[in-house]
Every structure is written in structure tokens, then in C-alpha cells.
Design goal:
By secondary structure, the protein is of the alpha/beta class. It folds into three domains: 271 residues, TIM Barrel (Alpha-Beta Barrel); 136 residues, 2,3-Dihydroxybiphenyl 1,2-Dioxygenase, domain 1, CATH 3.10.180.10; 190 residues, 2,3-Dihydroxybiphenyl 1,2-Dioxygenase, domain 1 (Roll), CATH 3.10.180. Helix content is 36%, strand content 25%. It is built from 21 helices and 26 strands. The strands form three sheets. It has a nine-stranded mixed β-sheet with strand order 14-15-16-13-9-12-11-10-17. Helix 9 crosses helix 11, helix 11 runs parallel beside helix 16 and helix 19 packs antiparallel against helix 20. The protein is elongated and about 90 Å long. The N and C termini lie far apart (59 Å). The chain binds 3,4-dihydroxybenzoic acid and magnesium ion (MG). The site of 3,4-dihydroxybenzoic acid has 10 residues, from strand 3 and helix 8.
Length: 628
């Protein structure tokens, strides 16, 4: 299969799009007519630029409202097509993509449409060109690929072929089995797009919410299996209309596109054993069994307060790095690394972002394999000098320039605590009952949410939950969880279009995207809260009204509710599963901890999020100097 991407996927001018497409390693490009119309140069100039960067224009589109027109429009439509062929000649492109007619003037009739395509095929062939027909899911008469195929079949012309677009087919839930019997040489182009499942009209859904394969919820795998069954080995092109992509980074969205194709074809190869020329063998996604450590970048001044908070939360200093100003803090299965070194990566991270999470380390089954997969998926590997005898832990650049480390047992990387750290004796230290990292919540720009979703899901054996909408006093926040099947690793991605939400203000304060909070698990939240209070940890106050409502909303006894109220603990129940959560007050820089007790509960307490966000907003406003 030859892969490509449509210019419509990206933000920027045509020049910028073409450069980003070439830089992301594509060889083919679909030119959208509007991009050419707004280009300040001739189609020949565009061709020079495209070919100069090693790209080929695989199609020119869309040609609209063509088939089934009555006269006099019919003659005009053919004249318009000839003009497009002129442009294509200059552009160096031989395939015109025609999408099904949406005009109220168009007449139905499969034979009329087939006759029009036969004539268009004749005209195209005279000029050494071809035309492909795509059924738009909102086409007036033709909105089903099976009807488009029947038109192409009856047109019976070698220069007329079919275009399959996964969005139009999967959005309507059209049966895929008929794809399997289409002769592959009759499929001139396959356009790929995924989308979240939304209940809206096809046109709006398609024009604003498409996304790259794997970023949405449509059964792309089933589509690819049906396509594969035909023996198709032609052009496969990404065609995404997405408001966030149009506003996002041209370069990184182009890379996301390439990454999504590599992952999709690799998945197909694993399922079918098929070989795709040009697609290298990639190590499989990593199984992760959770977070090995979370590293904070601090400076000398903030280290004192931060370490005091860790002690208050029941952590004990368990090791001192052999060559750097770095300490290890432990409790249960949780490792927190506090990096106050005056050199290196964490130091520069601290200068830019202040006290913040500069790295996450994941426990994986095969760390070197993971790094190899990441590099093959166009992630950025990271390497910094290590001291003699110290471990070199594989890492890639993650969210907001932070690092994502991979630690495994297989290659002994899990020995890092003995190798790199001087252990400190714990004595009879009693913690606060915290056992493990429950989830890590990251806030990011709205436009980059799908980028990071793909980053994690392309590397790890994880599933994603549907996007949830959370109400913050300053606007709406979109939240999506990525989790392993056994729940040992849970990452939450948050983003908001409003600048007033806590999540957006965090981005502003941190100068970038990053980890906004970490949830730690306890087996007994009441005991943990007692411990935290005794240690002087300040918890986020929750309004009385919340507890008044809990009493009527649940069957908790008045005593139970009183215990929750006294501890500022939030509560949720799903059938017999229960979730109890409490938050620390927000620290300098906007970071906070959450403590959770899960009783067979799967989610993240979304019902409580607006209450928590309102309390945090209230405290943040109270902290501002008066008059602001
Ligand atoms: O939204 C559209 O009009 C449109 C245009 C061209 C396509 O290939 C498509 O799938 C949709
Ligand atoms: Mg299309």
C-alpha cells in the first residue's frame, strides 16, 4: 500500500503543509482544491515544491455535484471537469476525486449516473487521467459505497474507479462485507478517518470531528480487514477534517498522521500475517504494570517545602542518589524521586516550569523493545550523561517536554534503586497507608489532546474510555482516561477550550502542559486522612451542601455522611462499588495530590469533579491579592 495524507488535515498555508507532510516521511499527498486556490503561485509552482520535497500528488479533490445533473447544468459540469483536468496537468496529478452529488437539482437513477461517469472516464482517459467516485454519507441520491460501486461497475470504463472513505462507511454503520468482493484494481483510492461516536448529522460529524485511525471509536480494524480481503495494495490516504487539527501544530499533526498509519498497518499485519513493503517490523506494544516512579524537578528553596509535604503524606526518604542531588521517597509501592540537581535535564525543566513533574517512569515488560517501538513510531528518544556504573534508563520525550522512562525486570533496569541510590534505613517507620499510584492526571492544550492520546495508545497495551465532559466553574473540560485492562496503569488527559478553567490556568502557570495531579491509593481513606491531618497536611475543604445532598442521594447513614464530611472526603457509588476521594490543597505551581480508596470501583469520580473544581477555584481566588 502507498500511503498519503490530504492537505485538509493540517493547519497553515499550502507551503507549510507540504513541508510538514514531507518532514513526517510521507511520499504521497492529496491536494484539496481550496489549498491550491489560496496558494499564491501557479499549480506548476506547487508541483515544483511538492516534487522537490520527494512527494507525489496522488489526487486532486473534491469535484462536487457532478453526476445526474439535468441540462443545462450537465454540460456546465463537464466543462468544469475539463478545467480541473487542465489544473491537474500542471499539478502533475492523474486522479480526480468526485464526491457524490448533494445538489437538490440532481436527478437520481443509477444508469444516468453511470452514463455520466462513462463520459467523464472517456474525457479523462483522453488526457491520461482517471476519476474516482466516493459516496458522501450525506449524498443526495448516493450515500452508500455499495451504490457508488454499482455506478462505477456500470460505467464500465477503465479510467473510472471507486473511492472508499472509512468515515462515510463506518459512520453510517454500513455492512462491510460487500467490500470484500470488489476487485482491488477498481478501488482507485482509500481514504482513512476515524471519529468519536457522536449522535449528530453526518455532515457536521465529518467536517469537525474526524480524527486519525486509533484516535476515535469507529471499527477501523474491521474496515481494514475487509479491505485486506480484496487484495488491495493501492493508495491509502488520511483525510481528516478536524477543528483541533486546523488549529494545532502543522508538524506534529503530520507526524501523528504517519504514526497512526504505521500503528494501523502494523496491527493489520499482526492480525493477518500480511507483509507491507516499506513497513518495518516493529516490536509489539508494551504491557505495563504501572508507574515505577514519578520524578519532580525542584530547586533548593522549594525542595524543603516539597519534602515536608512528602513526609506529611507518609513518605520516607529511602535513598540518596550516588552522584546527584536526587532523593528517593517511598511508601507502599510508590516511588517519588525529588531532583534538586543543579545540572542536567531536571534542572532546566525546573527553571522553565518551577516545581513540577519532569518525568514518569513506567514498568514495562521490555524496555529496550519499547524504546525501539517508540523510535519507529517517530517519538523523540532522550539521552543524558549518566555517572560511572549508573543505569541508562531508556526514555522518550513526553507531554510538555517531560520524559517518559521505561523500566523493566528483563534487562535489570528495576535494579536502579540499588545501583543508582545509597539506601537509607527505614527503622520502624509507619506510613499513611498509601499503597500505589492510582492514576496520573495531565493537563494539556485542547489542540494537542489527540496527539497525546495517540502517543500513549500507540506505545502501550491500553484502552481508552470515551471522552467525558466535566464542568469547571470557568468552563468545560474534556477528560479521557487511558488504562491497562487490569487498571495497574491509568493516565488521564484533560484539556479545555476555556482559558478560565483550572486546567487551562495550570498550563498558564506551568508554562506548558504537564502533570497536574497524582492520585495515590489507600486501603483505608479514613485512617489515611487522620494521619495526614496529624501531620499538618491541609486538605481541600468541601462545602456542607455536598454532604446534605449525599444524605438524600445515597443510602448512606447520617453517621457515614458525617465521617465523610469530617474528612472532606468525596463519595461515589456505582451499584455496590464505592469510591472515596480526598484532595490536598493546591501547592505552588498548581500541582496537588489526591488520595483514593477504591471498593471495586472502576471510574474516577466524575460526578464529584465539579464540586472539587469549584472548591479549588474558590481557594485560588481567595489567594489572590485583593482587587484582582
Ligand atoms: O466534506 C466534504 O465535502 C468532503 C469532501 C471530500 C471528501 O473526500 C469527503 O470525504 C468529504
Ligand atoms: Mg473522503
Amino acid at each position: 500500500m502507498r500511503t498519503a495524507i490530504a492537505t485538509v488535515c493540517l493547519s497553515g498555508t499550502l507551503t507549510k503543509k507540504i513541508e510538514a507532510i514531507a518532514a513526517a516521511g510521507f511520499k504521497g499527498i492529496e491536494i484539496f482544491e481550496n489549498d491550491l486556490l489560496s496558494f499564491n503561485g501557479s499549480p506548476k509552482d506547487a508541483r515544483r515544491m511538492i516534487e522537490g520535497l520527494g512527494l507525489a500528488t496522488i489526487t486532486f479533490q473534491p469535484f462536487r455535484d457532478f453526476e445526474g445533473m439535468p441540462e443545462p447544468q450537465r454540460s456546465k459540469v463537464f466543462a468544469r471537469a475539463e478545467r480541473k483536468f487542465d489544473v491537474m496537468e500542471e499539478l502533475g496529478c492523474d486522479l480526480l476525486m468526485v464526491c457524490s452529488n448533494v445538489s437538490p437539482d440532481s436527478l437520481g437513477g443509477i444508469d444516468r449516473a453511470a452514463a455520466d461517469f462513462h463520459e467523464l472516464g472517456e474525457r479523462a482517459a483522453k488526457r491520461g487521467m482517471r476519476v474516482g467516485f466516493e459516496a458522501l454519507s450525506w449524498g443526495r441520491h448516493i450515500h452508500d459505497y455499495r451504490d457508488a460501486w454499482e455506478v462505477v461497475r456500470r460505467a464500465n470504463h477503465p479510467a473510472v474507479g471507486l473511492v472508499l472513505d472509512s468515515f462515510h462507511i463506518l459512520a453510517r454503520g454500513t455492512d462491510l462485507s460487500a467490500i470484500r468482493s470488489i476487485p482491488p484494481e477498481r478501488i482507485f483510492l482509500v481514504q482513512m478517518a476515524d471519529a468519536p461516536k457522536l449522535d449528530m448529522d453526518y455532515l457536521s460529524w465529518s467536517r469537525h470531528y474526524r480524527c486519525f485511525p486509533g484516535q476515535g471509536e469507529l471499527p477501523i480494524d474491521e474496515f481494514m480487514l475487509a479491505l485486506h480481503a480484496t487484495g488491495f495494495s493501492g493508495l491509502l490516504s488520511l483525510e481528516i477534517f478536524n477543528d483541533r487539527f486546523r488549529a494545532g501544530s502543522t508538524r506534529s499533526v503530520a507526524i501523528d498522521g504517519q504514526r497512526s498509519l504505521i500503528v494501523m498497518l502494523d496491527e493489520l499485519r499482526r492480525q493477518t500475517g500480511a507483509a507491507f513493503p516499506g513497513l518495518q517490523d516493529i516490536p509489539p506494544k508494551a504491557a505495563s504494570s504501572g508507574v515505577e516512579f514519578i520524578e519532580f524537578a525542584v530547586d533548593e528553596r522549594s525542595a524543603v517545602g516539597f519534602e515536608k509535604t512528602l513526609s506529611g503524606l507518609g513518605f520516607r526518604k529511602a535513598g540518596i542518589h550516588r552522584s546527584k542531588a536526587v532523593t528517593r521517597w517511598c511508601q507502599g509501592d510508590i516511588n517519588i524521586v525529588v531532583n534538586a540537581d543543579k545540572e542536567g535535564y531536571a534542572h532546566s525543566f525546573n527553571i522553565t516550569h518551577g516545581t513540577s513533574v519532569c518525568a514518569l517512569a513506567l514498568r514495562v515488560n521490555d524496555a529496550p523493545g519499547m524504546l525501539k517501538r517508540a523510535v519507529m513510531l517517530l517519538d523523540q528518544p532522550f539521552q543524558q550523561p549518566v555517572g560511572p556504573g549508573e543505569m541508562n534508563i531508556p526514555a522518550v520525550r513526553g507531554l510538555g517536554g517531560s520524559l517518559l522512562y521505561f523500566v523493566d525486570h528483563k534487562t535489570g533496569l528495576d535494579r536502579l534503586w540499588e545501583v543508582d541510590f545509597e539506601p537509607l534505613e527505614g527503622g520502624d517507620f509507619a506510613g499513611a497507608g498509601l499503597t500505589m499510584v492510582d492514576h496520573v492526571s495531565q493537563s494539556m492544550h485542547y489542540e494537542e489532546m489527540l496527539t497525546w492520546l495517540l502517543f500513549y495508545t500507540s506505545l502501550l497495551e491500553v484502552q481508552k474510555t470515551p471522552v467525558q465532559t466535566v464542568i469547571d466553574p470557568g468552563g468545560v473540560v474534556q477528560s479521557q482516561a487511558i488504562e491497562t485492562r487490569d487498571g495497574s496503569l491509568c493516565l488521564i488527559l484533560n484539556a479545555s477550550q476555556s482559558r478560565q478553567t483550572l486546567s487551562s490556568r495550570f498550563l498558564h502557570d506551568l508554562f506548558g502542559s504537564g502533570v497536574q495531579h497524582i492520585a495515590l491509593a489507600t486501603g483505608n481513606i479514613f485512617a489515611t486522612v487522620e494521619h495526614l491531618k496529624a501531620n499538618g497536611i491541609e486538605l481541600l475543604p468541601i462545602p456542607e451542601n455536598y454532604y446534605g445532598d449525599l444524605e438524600v442521594r445515597t443510602d448512606l447513614s447520617a453517621d457515614d455522611v458525617e465521617r465523610l464530611r469530617a474528612g472532606n472526603i468525596l463519595y461515589d457509588r456505582e451499584d455496590s462499588a464505592e469510591y472515596l476521594q480526598v484532595y490536598t490543597k493546591t501547592m505552588e505551581g498548581g500541582f496537588f495530590f489526591e488520595i483514593v480508596e477504591r471498593r471495586n470501583y472502576q471510574g474516577y469520580g466524575a460526578v464529584n469533579a465539579p464540586i472539587r473544581l469549584a472548591s479549588q477555584t474558590r481557594l485560588a481566588s481567595a489567594a489572590l491579592p485583593s482587587g484582582i
